[in-house]
Amino acid sequence: MKPQSPSSETTDTILVLTNLPDQNSAEKIAEHLIANQLAACVNLLAPCTSIYHWQGKIERAEEIPLLIKTTLQNYPAIEEAIQALHPYELPEIIHVPITGGLPAYLTWLHQETKA
Q: Does a structural domain hold residue 2?
């Protein structure tokens, strides 16, 4: 079986990760991204405990993780929106490539986001 070449849906599709301190701020960012067609879907996960260094101390916080499905073209606008709406001084904003997935889902993701 010959491997298929990656389509544009798999080469520029990304997952953006961020954490928010509470449900309200998580919903605010998620709704903003969806309303502006910057993301096709945002999952708000159950609260988790984050342990990290901040300003010379070990900190512990309960946070709401967001999984943001979008395209690489939308990443700059998503980063800007998260920074503008996020209550943290330095929010976690990470994106990772989505290198595969159900083709119909990836097509839908592209159709639901701005070109």
A: no
Q: Domain of 19: which CATH number?
A: 3.30.70.120
Domain count for the chain, please give it: 1
User: What's residue 5's pLDDT?
Assistant: 45
Measure Cα distances from 68 to 53, 56, 58, 79, 90 in Å.
Answer: 25, 30, 27, 11, 18
Nearest Cα neighbor of 114 from 82, 76, 70, 79 is 70
Q: Has residue 6 been placed in a domain?
A: no
- Relative to beta strand 57-71, strand 94-97 is unpaired
Prediction pTM value: 0.90
Residue 107 in this model has a pLDDT that exceeds 80: yes
